[in-house]
């Protein structure tokens, strides 16, 4: 006890010191970002104070400008240039030059960059959410959940564990290389390219940027033409934080444009991250194949939402409605197929109907609404076509929500929350990605049946399984083909930033987020060196030196059995033979082994 007592005292003192250090706030400078031109009630010029009417039936692809407007009100926000191929390549060249300097930066500097960002985000939550709301139509609450919390979680995870997972990782050297030290090193790739969608403009920029910059890379991000206004403002935040830590200019860049811009980016970078539709993902792959550029694809989703008969119906109904109606088509993880056990089917629909009837929808910055506008032009027509197809094939509308006060010019940007019953897999709504506030509900009788239904999809991003038995829910989830599974919850995986995120089948491949996503931004290099160098150096055994000895193969046979034989006595016998081969008795051993 006399020996252990001082150690206990020291351990306790160390713990107290660590706790006291935690009470000392870190010295994190503040950054100033000009937001005067993005505030909803700020000073506006006559040029961009009108209602924008996008041309119907054609895209902006032929224009040299990316026109921006508020989907909730159709108010004009301004425009940004659609960069040409040569302009994109020039931006990547500048980022590549900056990255060579940044690659030498310390993790201490990189962590300070993250802390500066975190401080700004926490202090300017309302501004960030308001900009996201204006550009995409989502509510402030949904912006907070999907933009602020997820990004803050990623930053804190990188601060806590990022350096640990980028340091060299030592591995076993095996039997033949016992005298060696083996490790894996993680080096920056160079310049990462990212093409990101409109649904969460703040997080979709910060997510790949944080991983790329922390791992020593530069990054060029093409933002969606449907969220360029917000993306270019969020870029100012990144620029200010990089300048505060003395990072080289052009390390991070945000570019705007259409297909030509994206194609140029794919052919210019060292790694490509794409988040978007399956059709465009396939185009990205084809273009990347020309330069053998590695890609990570996070594509469409049609997640199965499974509710067993022993689940808490009222609770799950609330989760299901939020998962479906969140930001009216801004869904993060795509819960789009609902399978409810026949014993609680009626009770679940009753609960869902009650919730949907209470949902209020309207321009998110003009009142307290539960649901905002649809970001994409003419998307409401596509959603209605899916509903019509289901109705033609026997489905029924259980309940349909209503809206608050809408401006005449923005009516087409809204779609009423819709619950469909009596659906089946012949209907498009159960096969095609909707990305809208539609909840199709189908019955099932057995666990085997619902597993088969859940796997009957070309998409395989995620699933959610609800049951009063945790074991049962896990068994069901384990048999569903997907990359992300939530047990008795929905979309909680993404808040666990230590976990990888991505799907299989038409939902893509590769992973971002977590350890896997962080290391995916790296050149993974295997390194082997002598363990006791220069005392012990690798030498080629004499029997297999050129010119090889007559008994070279017999030596190899004995060596293999020595290293990998299943019987310890055979291995010892072979070891003796190996030692003899290395001496002048090798010829005698050769004749003996041949006689056996």
UniProtKB/TrEMBL annotation:
Segments forming domain Aldehyde dehydrogenase: 61-527
UniProt xrefs under PANTHER family: ALDEHYDE DEHYDROGENASE-RELATED
Family classification: Belongs to the aldehyde dehydrogenase family.
Keyword Oxidoreductase: yes
Taxonomic placement: Eukaryota, Viridiplantae, Streptophyta, Embryophyta, Tracheophyta
Organism: Eruca vesicaria subsp. sativa
Keyword list, A-Z: Oxidoreductase
UniProt-listed InterPro entries: Ald_DH/histidinol_DH (IPR016161), Ald_DH_C (IPR016163), Ald_DH_CS_CYS (IPR016160), Ald_DH_CS_GLU (IPR029510), Ald_DH_N (IPR016162), Aldehyde_DH_dom (IPR015590)
Active-site feature positions: 298
GO MF, one annotated term: oxidoreductase activity, acting on the aldehyde or oxo group of donors, NAD or NADP as acceptor
Protein name: Aldehyde dehydrogenase domain-containing protein
Superkingdom of the source species: Eukaryota
């Amino acid at each position: 006890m006399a020996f252990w007592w001082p150690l206990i005292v020291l351990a306790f003192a160390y713990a107290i010191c660590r706790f006291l250090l935690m009470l000392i706030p870190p010295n994190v400078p503040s950054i100033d970002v000009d937001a005067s031109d993005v505030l909803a009630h700020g000073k506006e010029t006559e040029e961009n104070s009108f209602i924008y009417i996008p041309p119907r039936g054609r895209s902006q692809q032929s224009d040299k400008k990316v026109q921006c407007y508020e989907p909730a009100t159709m108010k004009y926000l301004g425009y940004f240039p659609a960069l040409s191929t040569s302009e994109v390549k020039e931006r990547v060249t500048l980022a590549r030059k900056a990255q060579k300097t940044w690659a030498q930066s310390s993790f201490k500097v990189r962590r300070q960059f993250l802390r500066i960002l975190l401080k700004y985000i926490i202090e300017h939550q309302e501004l960030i959410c308001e900009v996201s709301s204006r550009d995409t139509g989502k509510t402030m609450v949904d912006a907070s959940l999907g933009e602020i919390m997820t990004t803050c979680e990623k930053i804190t995870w990188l601060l806590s564990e990022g350096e640990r997972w980028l340091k060299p990782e030592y591995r076993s050297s095996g039997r033949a290389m016992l005298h060696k030290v083996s490790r894996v090193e993680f080096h920056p790739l160079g310049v990462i390219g990212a093409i990101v969608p409109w649904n969460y403009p703040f997080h979709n920029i910060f997510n790949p940027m944080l991983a790329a910059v922390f791992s020593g890379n530069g990054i060029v991000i093409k933002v969606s033409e449907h969220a360029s206004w917000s993306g270019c403002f969020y870029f100012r935040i990144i620029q200010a934080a990089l300048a505060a830590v003395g990072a080289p200019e052009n390390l991070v860049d945000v570019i705007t444009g259409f297909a030509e811009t994206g194609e140029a980016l794919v052919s210019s970078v060292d790694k490509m991250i794409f988040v978007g539709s399956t059709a465009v993902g396939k185009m990205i792959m084809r273009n990347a194949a020309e330069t053998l550029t590695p890609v990570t694809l996070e594509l469409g989703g049609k997640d199965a939402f499974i509710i067993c008969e022993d689940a808490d119906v009222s609770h799950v109904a609330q989760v299901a409605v939020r998962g479906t109606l969140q930001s009216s088509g801004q869904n993060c993880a795509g819960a789009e197929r609902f399978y409810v056990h026949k014993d609680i089917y009626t009770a679940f629909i009753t609960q869902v109907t009650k919730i949907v009837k209470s949902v209020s929808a309207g321009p998110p910055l003009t009142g307290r609404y539960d649901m905002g506008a649809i970001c994409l032009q003419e998307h409401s027509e596509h959603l209605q076509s899916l509903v019509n197809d289901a109705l033609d094939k026997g489905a029924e509308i259980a309940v349909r929500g209503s809206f608050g006060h809408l401006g005449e010019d923005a009516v087409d940007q809204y779609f009423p929350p819709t619950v469909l019953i009596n659906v089946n897999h012949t209907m498009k709504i159960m096969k095609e990605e909707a990305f809208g506030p539609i909840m199709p509900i189908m019955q099932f009788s057995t666990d085997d049946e619902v597993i088969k239904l859940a796997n009957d999809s070309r998409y395989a991003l995620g699933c959610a399984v609800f049951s009063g038995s945790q074991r049962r829910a896990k068994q069901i989830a384990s048999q569903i083909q997907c990359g992300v599974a939530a047990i008795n919850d929905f979309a909680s995986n993404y808040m666990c930033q230590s976990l990888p995120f991505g799907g299989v089948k038409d939902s893509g491949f590769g992973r971002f987020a977590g350890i896997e996503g962080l290391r995916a931004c790296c050149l993974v290099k295997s390194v082997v060196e002598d363990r006791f160098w220069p005392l012990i150096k690798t030498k080629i055994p004499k029997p297999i030196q050129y010119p090889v000895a007559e008994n070279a193969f017999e030596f190899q046979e004995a060596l293999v059995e020595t290293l990998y034989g299943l019987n310890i006595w055979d291995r010892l016998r072979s070891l003796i033979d190996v030692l003899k081969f290395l001496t002048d008795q090798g010829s005698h051993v050769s004749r003996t082994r041949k006689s056996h």
